[in-house]
Structures are given as structure tokens and as C-alpha cells.
Amino acid sequence: MGNIVVSQNITLDGVVQDPTGEEGIGGWFNRIGDRDRAAWAQAGHEEATRSAALLLGRRSYEYLAARWTTRTGDWADRLRALPKYVVSSTAVPEPTWGPTTVISTDLIPKLKEEIDGDIVVNASTQLARTLLAENLTDEIRLIAFPFLAGRGGRLFDETPRSLRLTSTQPVGDNLILSTYALVQDA
């Protein structure tokens, strides 16, 4: 049985929006040094190596595909080879980033039954919120960046959730990877 893992880069004040500054409100990802960037890349590569599939929203798929389709190296090759499931009510224009299947949200429980291993959700805030609301998320991995954005979209809405810390580790000199299991409230 598969585990849905929401994996996000996040500021210390909970912002996930616009990490590279393309929307004009963020840019916090670009404020880390070379050692942190290399360690972050290593953590991402290791996560991809352990993953069985990616689960993405349509916009995130298009954003990531545009950046990863032409990259080279082991990490890019692994991401290209991973099965990608895109949750969308509209068609994904000519998928070009390896094996890609468009599904609806109601098929995610079946996907969890069919895939053995981690089904990782990257950069898909709206999808992550839906998965949390429908109790389909098993784990949350957050790489915290030492930055206070002050504004921008956050991963979590105002719905209370109980989490249990399962691990924490430094990534580079200034980033922290924290992993949480979701506690199913009785």
C-alpha cells in the first residue's frame, strides 16, 4: 500500500508560495548559500530515489516539467522515470515529462492501494490541502528555510490537525528537514 507524502519547501512563518520570486512576493529560495543549495539538492535526489511515484496538481506539473524535462544528471533522470499522476479536471497539454497519467481526486484512494511505496506531492499546495482535508495524507516532510516571508500563500489552512514528529535532520548549514506523521484524531 502506498503512502501519500506531502513534501514542501517552507519558510519559518509557513509560507510556501513563490519560493523563487517569480510572482514578486517571495524569492526566499534564492537567499541560501551554495552549501545549503547543494545539501537541499542532495535531499531532493534522495527523496526521489526512495519514491514510487509523484502526485501533482496540473499547474505544478507544468511548472516542474518545464524545468526538469531538459535537465541532465541522476536526479533529473530519476524524476523523469518516476510515474507521475496529475490531479486535474482538464487535460494536461501533451505530457512530455516521462510517464504521466491524469486522474481525478476520487481515484487517489485506489492509487494508494495500487502503488507500493511513497507517493510524493511536491509544490502542489491546493492538492496538498485537499489530501489533508480528505485524510489521505500519511506524512508531511518540510524543509524549513531560515526566512520570514511575512506574506504569501501557506501550506496549511485553518483546519486543526494533530501531527507527530518522526524525524528531524539538518540540511546543509541553515535548513532543517522535519518529517511528521499525521495522527488520526478519534
Structure description:
The chain has 186 residues and is α/β, with parallel strands linked by helices. It is built from 5 helices and 8 strands, in the order E-H-E-H-H-E-E-H-E-H-E-E-E. It has helices at 34-50, 58-68, 74-81, 108-114, 125-133, and strands at residues 2-11, 51-57, 84-87, 100-103, 117-122, 139-145, 162-171, 175-183. The protein has an 8-stranded mixed beta sheet with strand order 4-3-2-5-1-6-8-7. Strand 7 (162-171) and strand 8 (175-183) form a beta hairpin. Helix 1 runs parallel beside helix 3. The chain is globular, with a radius of gyration of 16 Å. The two termini are 22 Å apart. 27% of the residues are buried. The mean pLDDT is 93.
Provide the fold topology.
Blueprint: E1 2-11, H1 34-50, E2 51-57, H2 58-68, H3 74-81, E3 84-87, E4 100-103, H4 108-114, E5 117-122, H5 125-133, E6 139-145, E7 162-171, E8 175-183
Parallel strand pairs: 1-5, 1-6, 2-3, 2-5, 3-4
Antiparallel strand pairs: 6-8, 7-8
Instruction: Give Rg in angstroms.
Output: 16 Å
Task: Tell me the fraction of residues in β-strands, as a range.
Answer: 25-35%
**Count of individual beta strands:** 8
Shape: globular
- The chain-level structural class is alpha/beta
Number of helices: 5
User: What integer is the average pLDDT?
Assistant: 93
Query: What are the secondary-structure elements, in order, as H or E?
Result: EHEHHEEHEHEEE
Low-confidence stretches: none
